[in-house]
Amino acid sequence: METLEKDLFTALRERRSIYGISKESPISDQSIQEIIEETVKHTPSAFNNQTTRVVLLLGEQHNKLWDFTTEILKADIPSEQFSSTQEKMNGFRNGYGTVLFFEDQSIIDSFMKQYPSYQEHFPIWSQQTNGMHQLVIWMALEAEGLGVNLQHYNPLIDERVKAEWKLPESWKLIAQMPFGKPSASAGEKKFNPVQERIKVFK
Question: Are strands 171-182 and 147-148 parallel, antiparallel or unpaired?
């Protein structure tokens, strides 16, 4: 895998929710796949249980996701209120691809049985490791010049996603991450004082 264009903290500072994305990519499909493979291989998880699953949708598969998501939402939202949702859907479909994030519930369940004293923690730890995967992939794609945002249309689209790509029933959909070459910049980001959010004791 080639070295990323930016260092860690530059990528973290510049990571933003970019909603203006196009059907172009500054890097190859192979490079996108390698970013995901490296992330899934090396991102930590509780007890090293490796519960996160990732699906990469490109081309017509990406289009298909946002087409049927639009259909599902259209059936659930009054027509007079749907125009803003349609605009969002068009924006996501205009992207180059989408990363789908899942957690394998069968592994979580097995660890809950294996370690009953930690039982209630495994679902929480599962969400935490999924969030780490999301951030690493987000930063890596951003570092390569892609615009990225994160969406949560689950559980409305869960069953259709599983059926469309024949995914295991135990995979629980957590988030959708559309991406593409930026066609618009993000707005100004405001920060609360860091001093109010961190305590240091020596």
Answer: antiparallel
Report how far residue 190's alpha carbon sits from residue 83's, in angstroms, rounded to the nearest whole number: 29
Alpha-carbon distance 138 to 132, whole Å? 10
Half-sphere exposure of 35 toward its Cβ, with a 13 Å CA cutoff?
24
Other beta carbons within 10 Å of 181 = 18
Q: Which pLDDT tens digit goes with each residue over 24-76?
A: 999 999 999 999 999 999 999 999 999 999 999 999 999 999 999 999 999 99
C-alpha 88/C-alpha 66 separation (Å) is 10
Q: Say which DSSP state 4 is in.
A: P
Helix extents (H) in the chain:
8-14, 29-42, 60-76, 83-93, 105-114, 122-143, 158-164
- Check if the beta carbon of residue 89 is closer than 8 Å to that of residue 153: no
Q: Please confirm whether the linkage preceding 155 is cis (ω < 30° from 0).
A: yes
* Mean pLDDT within 184-198: 92
Instruction: pLDDT band for 185, please (50, 70, 90 cuts).
Output: confident
The single-letter code of the amino acid at 182 is P
pLDDT at 7: 85
* Radius of gyration of the chain measured on its C-alpha atoms: 18
